[in-house]
Amino acid sequence: MMPIVFRTGLFIFLLSSKCLLSQLTADAGSDLYLCDSLGKKIPAPISLNKNFYLGGNPSAIGGIKPYKYAWKFEFKTSLQSKPFLYAKDILNDTTDANPKLTIFEITNPYFGSLNKDLFYVVLEVTDSVGNKSRDSLLVSYSQYVYTAVSHFYKSKYDTIQISSNIKKGKSPVRYSWSPNKSLIDTNSVNPRTYVSSSIFYMSYAVDSFGCKASDGIDVVVNTNSISSVNSPSTILNFHNPISDNSIFKINSETRILQVEVYNDIGQKLSTWIKPEFIHFGSELRSRGNYYLWLYKSDGNIEKIRLIR
Questions:
Q1: In b/e form, how buried is each residue of 277-306, taking b as 16+ CB within 10 angstroms?
Q2: Residue 301 is part of which domain span?
Q3: Cα–Cα distance measured from residue 71 to residue 135, given in angstroms and rounded to the nearest whole number
Q4: Residue 115's Cα: distance from chain center in Å?
Q5: HSE-up of 108 (CA within 13 Å, CB side)?
Q6: Less CB within 10 Å around the terminal CB: N or C of the chain?
């Protein structure tokens, strides 16, 4: 009877070992989708799921405990002082089961050097008998870009196209405007307006991640006529139309502090500070109307239409 008992015990032992040595599985956690507000100089992103920690719950199952965790990451930067970023540069602890993602914190010395809107982080788990398992997660963030146009201008009876300063984000991006007075297509990034008096519009954007942004622009309605043919006193050799070689000489007696030139949709093309001469370059190559704004020392602004 002894051999029978021995074989039965051995069978039970082997069965128990098989249960203990179940497959080791690593879990790097759910993918992260973040809203990056760098365009508005807010240093930290806002996570849609409020989770800045990597790894699952738990980050490993199976195998034989205890586990060893090793997070891996490599990214080539444009920094001479730091050609590559590694896991230790973007996480607070590369050996923790659930490390904190720190690369988007302003206290991180490499904050802003990760110029990529998505990347993968890999988790490698090793159990006490040397079994290994790997898993990865995606970190992706949405970043808006803000243009510098702060105002558009028009005459009282014109209809002009305006544009939101908010660009990019994760497509598709939905736009809205407030107030929607005198706007054509209030869900467009570039609506048209026929407003007859100056107004301040706020534009709002929501992208496919749910990331939100807002910014405002002024539409300035000029109720005075803009000279287009008559020679203004501020420019000694004024002429219309202008050409590539046009150079205007400023009348020094008029004490002009600053000159700006705009296109038809209100985008500023050039600025001159206390100029003696104005030389038009490549920014006025296209045919159409342009507008000079001459800021005088007495606080008045002279507006002149140029024809190209």
A1: ebebeeebeeeeebbbbbbeeeeeebbbeb
A2: 247-307
A3: 10
A4: 11
A5: 20
A6: N
CA dihedral 203, 207, 210, 216 (to 10 degrees): -20
Q: Per residue in 224-257, pLDDT tens?
A: 544 444 567 788 888 878 877 788 899 888 889 8
- How far from each other are the two terminal CA atoms of the chain, in whole angstroms? 111
Total Cβ atoms within 10 A of residue 49? 10
The Cα–Cα gap between 182 and 199 comes to 10
Residue 283, CB-side half-sphere exposure with 13 Å CA sphere: 15
- Pair (42, 133) in one structural domain: yes
pLDDT for 51: 55
Token pair, residue 91, equals 């996480």
Tell me which of 3-12, 21-30, 79-88 is least confident. 3-12
Q: Which residues pair with 262 in a beta bridge?
A: 268, 291
- Answer yes or no: do 140 and 49 share one domain: yes
- CA dist 225 → 154, 162, 200 (Å): 11, 21, 22
Closest CA to 121 of 23, 32, 211: 32
The larger pLDDT score, comparing residue 206 to residue 307, is at 206
**282 part of a folded domain:** yes
Helix H or strand E segment including 168 = strand 166-168
Q: State the average pLDDT over residues 294-307.
A: 82
Residues 34, 138 share a domain: yes
Indicate which CATH number applies to the domain containing 198. Answer: 2.60.40.10
What pLDDT was estimated at residue 75?
92
